[in-house]
Q: What sequence folds into this?
């Protein structure tokens, strides 16, 4: 007998007991005088809540159903946060377009085709979202926007804090919705967005909706001001419950290094897969075909990058002058050349050595790029760093003597040894 049957039997027993007492003149009845007038006063019986207990043996295990392997999972709640001006909405639109037309994600994997539902409390569909969808090549027949809510004769704006149930009904009518975007997700919280308990209770219907529809829910948020340098999980605006409740947290950042600007899209957290790595990207403008004079932004994806979100989004060292900045970079170059002169090392070991030598990780990564050092993914040791072949040959020709890193620097091409940073001509990361 399962939990529900046990509960029903218990309720039947309670009801039978109440009727027996009533008929026998026990509690709950009123007995009249000898005249024979009786007035039964059977009290109402409120049904009890029955907790369903499920045996683990009765649960059929299943794998995570990925919309985008490692990044967007069907039936799961995601948070996407970042600095202002990093194009979070544009990236979300790009992901929506990829899902709608079965295109390829930044890592080259093919997306399954499905419908997309978007609610935006900040951007207009006419002049912002639709142009961006067109620029991203979306199948417009598969993208839908949440509009107003009609209740009788009243028409009002959709409120994600109170209208989730009505949205579920509308979504089931669309069918095949595999991605739901809520921008900004803080609007789904009617109470104080800085209180963990209120945020969890407010977001739970959204989490449940994603599970019922088997769609990935992507809630867009921001980084709080003045939180640079902190763990990206701690930078999400509002309560920590936003990031804690999400199974995957995505993040963006804009890194300014001298005259160059680099944008990073990465994973800050994942409870169901890899929680590191990302992609460089750029935001560009284009005129929409067939709509003269209508321009919109779109995402131009770049190369893959490895590392934690904290490392990837780390700001460069703030130095008082360019001379000091170049000096720190040169020291980091010498450090890497000497460290890797005898062969490749794991990134974990390099990080430990860099910390011990008082080199900031952001500067070490700049030195890595300037020296065209490759990152190689191995099965046993994870990511390892290796000097370019020409530098290793110089080392091998040194008759076994330890190469002085300063002499290597002086022997490097001027374009590498003197510049603060240099974009490698080949991909920065290699996966084996």
A:
């Amino acid at each position: 007998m399962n939990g529900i049957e046990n509960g029903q039997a218990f309720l039947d027993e309670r009801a039978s007991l109440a009727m027996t007492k009533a008929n026998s003149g026990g509690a709950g009845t009123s007995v009249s005088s000898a005249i024979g007038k009786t007035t039964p006063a059977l009290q109402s019986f409120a049904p009890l809540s029955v907790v369903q207990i499920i045996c683990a043996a009765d649960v059929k295990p299943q794998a995570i159903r990925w919309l985008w392997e490692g990044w967007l999972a069907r039936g799961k709640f995601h948070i996407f946060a970042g600095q202002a001006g990093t194009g979070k909405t544009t990236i979300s639109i790009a992901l929506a377009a990829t899902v709608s037309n079965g295109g390829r994600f930044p890592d080259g994997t093919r997306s399954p085709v499905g419908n997309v539902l978007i609610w935006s409390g900040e951007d207009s569909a006419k002049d912002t979202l639709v142009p961006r969808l067109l620029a991203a090549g979306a199948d417009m027949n598969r993208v839908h926007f949440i509009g107003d809510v009609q209740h009788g004769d009243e028409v009002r704006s959709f409120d994600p804090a109170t209208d989730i149930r009505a949205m579920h009904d509308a979504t089931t009518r669309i069918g095949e919705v595999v991605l739901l975007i809520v921008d900004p997700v803080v609007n789904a919280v009617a109470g104080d967005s800085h209180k963990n308990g209120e945020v969890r209770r407010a977001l739970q219907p959204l989490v449940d909706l994603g599970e019922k529809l088997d769609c990935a829910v992507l809630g867009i948020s921001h980084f709080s001001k003045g939180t640079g340098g902190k763990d990206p999980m701690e930078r999400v605006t509002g309560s920590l419950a936003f990031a804690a409740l999400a199974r995957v947290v995505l993040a963006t950042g804009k890194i300014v290094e001298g005259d160059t600007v680099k944008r990073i899209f990465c994973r800050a957290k994942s409870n169901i897969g890899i929680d590191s790595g990302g992609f460089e990207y750029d935001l560009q403008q284009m005129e929409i075909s067939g709509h003269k004079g209508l321009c919109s932004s779109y995402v131009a994806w770049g190369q893959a990058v490895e590392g934690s979100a904290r490392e990837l989004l780390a700001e460069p060292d703030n130095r008082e002058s360019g001379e000091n900045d170049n000096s720190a970079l040169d020291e980091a170059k010498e450090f890497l050349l000497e460290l890797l002169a005898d062969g490749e090392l794991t990134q974990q070991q390099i990080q430990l050595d860099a910390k011990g030598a008082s080199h900031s990780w952001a500067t070490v990564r700049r030195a890595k790029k300037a020296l065209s050092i490759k990152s190689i993914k191995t099965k046993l040791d994870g990511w390892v760093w290796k000097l370019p072949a020409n530098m290793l040959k110089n080392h091998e020709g040194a008759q076994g003597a330890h190469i002085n890193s300063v002499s290597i620097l002086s022997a490097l091409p001027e374009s590498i040894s003197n510049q603060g940073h240099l974009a490698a001509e080949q991909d920065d990361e290699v996966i084996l």
About this structure: The chain has three domains: 3-58, 66-312, 322-431. Residues 70 and 273 are 6 Å apart (CA to CA). The longest helix spans residues 3-23.
